[in-house]
Amino acid sequence: MDEHRSSIELRLPSRLGFEKVAMNTAASVANLMGFSNERIEDLKTAIAEACINAMEHGNKFDETLCVGVILSMGPDTLEVKVIDTGNGPQTHLAAPDIDKKMHEQEEARGMGMFLIESLVDEVEWVSSPPAGSYARMVIRLHPAKP
What digits encode the pLDDT tens for the residues 23-56? Predict the structure, then answer.
């Protein structure tokens, strides 16, 4: 591991509500690192989505299985890995049709991965059976301008 990085690890039960522990821990770390409130709120939403996906799709809400959350702090980046025991997304899904979802022509669910991608600077989903899978998100203190 890079000597300039320090990390915090959490093990959460696969039960709704525990994503708030990860959200609040990440918010505290990001605040200490100097992130703006707006970026912290984006990070909290992305982590909540990733944790709920891990609980639901990866661990099938089996409370005997944990969701791992690793926060790794660099000089100007915060990397978050959310780890579950599942196989990860089987294929990269097509972007959701927001208009159809808003007009209730499609189920409102199924937007979590796309929401996460819009809130953080970098994201990847890694499948590594039998060990499980993880979502890796990076948020930068000074993101590049689009």
Answer: 999 999 999 999 999 999 999 999 999 999 999 9
What range defines the domain where residue 108 resides? Answer: 6-140
Query: Which residue bears the tokens 């690890």?
Result: 9
Report the C-alpha gap between 57 and 62 in whole angstroms.
Answer: 10
Q: What's the rounded Cα separation, in Å, for the pair 95 and 118? A: 12
Phi-psi map region of 92: left, alpha, beta (phi>0 left; psi -120 to 50 alpha): beta
Report how far residue 139's alpha carbon sits from residue 121's, in angstroms, rounded to the nearest whole number.
5
Rounded to whole angstroms, what are the CA distances from 26 to 4, 12, 35, 125, 146?
18, 14, 11, 19, 25
> Tell me, what amino acid is at 58?
G
Low-confidence ranges of the chain (pLDDT < 50): 1-2, 91-98, 100-102, 105-107, 109
Number of domains in the chain: 1
Q: Is position 145 within any domain?
A: no
Which tokens is 101 given?
């979802």
pTM for this prediction: 0.83
Residue 130: asked if its preceding bond is cis (omega within 30°), the reply is: yes
The Cα-based distances of 97 to 2, 100, 101, 139 in angstroms read 41, 5, 6, 26
Residue 100 C-alpha from the chain's centroid: 25
